[in-house]
Design a protein that fits this description.
By secondary structure, the chain is α/β, with parallel strands linked by helices. Helix content is about 35%, strand content about 15%.
Length: about 250
């Protein structure tokens, strides 16, 4: 069994409450769940948020979408992630974060297949980024995740879930899924107000005519509307470690 865990919380430092900010009348997180729901590579999606009152609204979004919700530690995200997955005893766990409302289900499915077929302990499309920032996918075996949960002690490892694995290539079998074209300079994630403005503009332009718009449609729209594409171009990709969003 393969499951996906979507991390989300309201307490963003740079854009508080971003995951419940409305895009076309629905919370950003709800829009992302809608897109993830088209995946075919895993059986269950679990929303993992914190047990703080501030995240009641996040849990409500999951419930309204019919997604199982796990609530745990705000800061020990590795524990929250592990506990959300544990009841399912899956073979693999897909890690997604709630600041990526342009998530592409075809890319998620491709990375999952790559991870399973390659027999990797950890695989992602972020060790060497070639996809737009915001299309990040990480996949780990549950056994590897359990090892990280038991052994990781540093604050970075506990907050960001997967660094314990991808920092140890001598111990864990790692795989990096690469795009045919390097699009890593594009920023499709939401951390800043300008990110949210850009994403909102994309939805407003594409969603009404095609709710299933994908990466190709977004790229075409960006080429035709460079002013929108450049709205958040001054923000650098976080290169600290792959998949660093804490959520």
């Amino acid at each position: 069994m393969i499951i996906a865990v979507l991390q989300a919380r309201a307490s963003s430092r740079r854009l508080p409450g971003k995951v419940v900010k409305p895009i076309l009348g629905k919370p950003m997180l709800s829009r992302q769940i809608e897109r993830i729901g088209r995946c075919t590579s895993f059986e269950t999606l679990v929303l993992a948020t914190s047990d703080h009152d501030a995240d009641d609204a996040v849990a409500t979004v999951g419930a309204e979408r019919g997604v199982p919700v796990y609530r745990g530690s705000l800061d020990d995200v590795l524990d929250r992630f592990y506990q959300a997955a544990k009841p399912y005893q899956p073979s693999h766990v897909v890690r997604l974060t709630g600041d990526c409302p342009l998530a592409d289900w075809t890319i998620i499915d491709a990375v999952v297949r790559y991870a399973v077929e390659g027999d990797y302990d950890y695989a992602s499309n972020t060790i060497k980024p070639t996809f737009p920032d915001g299309l990040d996918v990480e996949v780990a075996t549950f056994a590897a995740l359990a090892t990280a949960w038991r052994e990781a002690t540093s604050p970075v490892d506990r907050e960001h879930v997967m660094p314990f694995l991808h920092r140890q290539p001598e111990r864990f079998r790692l795989g990096n899924f690469e795009n045919g074209e390097d699009l890593s300079a594009l920023r499709w994630t939401v951390d800043e107000p300008s990110d949210f403005a850009m994403i909102s503009a994309v939805y407003e332009a594409l969603y009404p005519g095609n709710p299933e718009f994908g990466t190709a449609e977004i790229l075409d729209f960006m080429k035709r509307n460079p002013a929108i594409s450049s709205m958040n171009s001054g923000i650098n990709r976080n290169e600290g470690c792959p998949g660093v969003s804490a959520s």
